[in-house]
């Protein structure tokens, strides 16, 4: 989005009969499909090369992964709507991504974090996906056990996606 604005091709997109939401979906879809392909490849490597057992439903893991990818893309689109240039967007992600990964609970338990940081994991999509991945692969948990994490991922995705569409429309007017 930022590069479109910098190159001056954003105005051409706006002249098309497509709505703002359709433009954003068209920009996001190829990235989403590529990341889903990478997720399938990573799961194949986990199963075939490392022999990681899947005690739960693989479709549940794939659905959680797809939601996590969408929420990550939503974070990127929100950052791009607040950035004036591609360089500013890239620098902003340097301040956004490290806290997301370190506060996810994927590498160290949430309980080991300081008490004041633990509530921030609720708005971290990687935390929800890590819980879904552990639950569905190692513990054999079903949807009834993991629905709060799916709900959290869905809410993060909807809020950030709506915010990016709203910000994009606001920039155009």
Q: What does this entry look like structurally?
A:
- The chain has helices spanning 2-7, 10-15, 20-48, 58-82, 86-102, 125-139, 143-172.
- The chain is globular.
- Helix 3 (20-48) crosses helix 4 (58-82) and helix 4 packs parallel to helix 7 (143-172).
- The chain starts with a helix and ends with a helix.
- It is mainly alpha-helical and 173 residues long.
- The relative contact order is 0.15.
Supply database-style keywords.
mainly alpha; 74% helix; single chain; globular; 173 residues
The overall pLDDT average reads: 88
- Spatial separation of the terminal alpha carbons: 16 Å
Indicate the percent of residues in helices.
over 70%
Query: What's the quaternary structure here?
Result: single chain
Low-confidence stretches: none
Domain module tally = 1
Helix/strand-derived category reads mainly alpha
Summarize the entry for a quick read:
The protein has 173 residues and is mostly helical. It is built from seven helices and no strands.
What's the helix and strand layout?
Layout (H helix, E strand, L loop, with lengths): L1 H6 L2 H6 L4 H29 L9 H25 L3 H17 L22 H15 L3 H30 L1
Helix pairs in contact: 3-4, 4-5, 4-6, 4-7, 6-7
